[in-house]
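Subject: complex prediction, re-run

Hi both,

The earlier run crashed halfway through, so I resubmitted it with identical inputs.
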Amino acid sequence: MTAEAPTKVIGKALKRREDPQLIVGQGNFLDDIKLAGMVHAVVLRSPYAHARIRSIDTSRAQAHPGVVAVFTGEDMLDINPLPCAWAAAGGRVQNNLNTPRALAVGEVHFAGDAVALVLAEDRYVARDAADLIDVDYEPLGVVVDARKAVEPGAPQLHENAPNNVIFKWDCGDAAATDAAIGSAEVVVREEIINQRLLPTPMETRGALARYESSTGEYTLWTTSQAPHVMRLLLTAFVFGIPEPKLRVISPNVGGGFGQKIFCYNDMAFTMWASKKIGRPVKFVEDRSENFKYSTAGRDHISDVEIAGTRDGQITGLRVQTYANLGAYISTIAPGIPTTLYGRIITGVYKIPAAYAHVTGVYTNTAMVDAYRGAGRPEASYLIERMIDRFAAEIGMDPAEVRRRNFIQPQDFPYHNGMGLLPYDSGNYEPALNRALEMVGYADFRAEQARARAEGRYLGVGLSSYVEICGVAPSAWIGLPGEGWGAGLWESANVRVHLTGQVVVTTGSLPHGQGLETTFAQLVADELGVAYENVVVEHSDTAGTPFGYGTYGSRSAAVGGTAIVKSTAKIKEKARRLAAHMLEASVDDVVFEDGKAYVRGSPDRSKSIGEIALQASVAYSLPEGMEPFLDETTYYDPPNCTFPFGTHIALVEVDGETGAVTLQRYVGVDDVGTVINPLIVDGQLHGGIAQGVAQALFERGVYDDNGQLVTGTLMDYAIPVASSLPSYELDRTVTPSPVNPMGVKGAGEAGTIGSAQAVMNAVIDALAPFGVKHLQMPATAERVWKAMHG
Amino acid sequence: MSTITVTVNGKAHTSTVEPRTLLVHYLREHLNLTGTHIGCDTSQCGACVVHVDGKSIKACTVLAVQVDGASVTTIEGLAPAGELHPLQEGFWECHGLQCGYCTPGMIMAAADLLQQNPNPSDDEVRHGLEGNLCRCTGYHNIVRAVQYAAAKMRGDEVTA
Ligand code: FES
Ligand code: FES
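This time it finished cleanly. Structure:
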């Protein structure tokens, strides 16, 4: 084996290895799996947003032909409610933790709450039978708005949470901020609403459980972004059984966007029911159930004050936020509007005094937890909207205000004073300048003025964002007071088989991100093997090391680093073994481009394949060396990574109808080193689409009775192709010093950067009408009212 | 129960179904053709698009009994085994899919679109796919993928 080292693949736009099966219909999604003897589960859901359950009569449903069993919450009292990470950590949630049970017991707290479970031979029959269950409800008072929920006299959801308050949390320097605002030349105040969003992965969620009585073992196939964590939570907290008794497998997952991180009741009730009836049980949500029951995102109401000088220096920022967390606390819900929001509220700016106070609130709505960006889009929207408000107030170009307040390159690592680890690296101005150049900002104002004279309203909107990726470090996220329960390190095992085939197993897992491709690229270059010879295995707790899963744009920075560290260990062992094979001193042997050779005489070399073979057959190894090239790493990063960039939207508002057209969308992102530009751009496209959708189309709406008005895709407007433009992207590259590859993360940047670019553009277009702020989404009706009201 | 005879991907099937059985469930549950997906319950998402007698339809909005005697093509039958339709190739080349859940429906809808309009503008592609939702890609690369396929099917030079 003296083949040339394969060409390097990091940085190449390789097409994805995940795709061949998906484009021909051979994907294997949850609902595609059929097991012998499997029954279908349907959930009867509460029509009331808040009610006491007086009685449930399941007899007619039980008697329905084809029904196997019907269960209620009372039947499942032998398992515990679902856990919340904040309880484990002794965080600031005190004694008022109300998490959902597999099925509700005694009281329902939102419309869609799970009341009974029907198991039948066929899903149509199960649905028919669910209609035959009689539940006697006593309706109770309902509150859906976080600000109203904390008012005296509001309906109370849980006895142990007076005024529906889950927690009060703060960060920053309250006194300094009060002083800065009190003495400022200019103060701008605004109520900023970050509306509820429904994540809407195109595949809904579900679970399929099989219990084997002979071994007492469960297997759970579920649409999860974090199968190892599900195993831990379900065994240790919900069922109280040894961890090895459960194997969790995520099959192909049809998009997650955060909604599929969490531990859900269906995981628990399919497992419980499978044991009870001795058959596999499958539950898959339909879309309206996904909207009604699975977690939503955002839903903040904030009172914001920004202070500064007339010449554009920002001196203070004070934020008071009510975060609606829904009827129960989801798995990591309290961590989103606190750790991932309050701590980055100052964005890309050096703000000498800042303070954020967050009240987490129960309401009679579906649970709220992480949705793409998770806290960071809310923070970014808020500061970027306020910067524009401030710029308008002092009559300065918003690009100039940004420039004057940017954290400067020499300031990194930068401490923002909000209790976050330091921003790792950054250089904000080049990205801003490039984006301005791409949109032709210098000429735009003249064009805007011409258009206004013709009665056409054009607007430009800027967004300079920074976000937190690689959410993992135990030094921060694992701190007891931070509330997450653990550092979110990641694992990877790399082994080189006797055939030279490299197998990577990782706790990270893709659900659209192309991690198999990206990780194989990394390993191929690190070990100097052909990309085709690297296999990446994931998504099954059997056969992969424990890992925290894929979310928070962490898989390249944390999971990828775990892989690279394992390859480094492999290379070191290979070098030692090669020295032995070459009868050279270890110190004289170097490993490079897939082979180990004696320094100064590259002909005396052994390829990684030869070394792997020798390590496997193992008849001649150096004293004390174990056979096989097989290395595992559990990587706990010292810091997060902080991608940044500037996005600019150009819009036209129709003066007659208020309709907004997004004419151009430019994004200049810095996600550090790029492993696969095709995949990174794809992540940015999708992320931008979701942020644009928040600005223009989407809003999860409950009426005063707690009914979800946007309960189907007919009412909840995720964008179609014709409502979005092509995206014009460019990037700057500021490698992260935190990991050896210099990657930062790209999964959420698009979403974090985009909503405010569009809203700032809409509001800029409406300047002739005296409009200073508008809440999202900027629907035609809202815009028209703002123009004419 | 009703008995229907349907040709699916070139193969005739005679099946007994409930009159209320949706075509999408017939394909997925009775014939095990799980490439056709379900993403909604209100006929919005297009994850379920198949061709009936050469025209794209949403299989969640048609009853199995309505296709009695018809010929159905699903994503599994769009190209012969081991080969890719230009659209499948285009989606792969242009990164037109991420999670891949919308992809079968998207490709089937695009195939019908290109039959009707072999040389569409980007705008026509975007409007032509309005019945199909994708949450991952932001559509940018889906438009490129369809244009790649259109060019290839016209015999033009293609670029990813
Ligand atoms: S499943 Fe959504 S349109 Fe058919
Ligand atoms: S690729 Fe995931 S929904 Fe389209």
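The mean pLDDT of chain A is 94.

- K.
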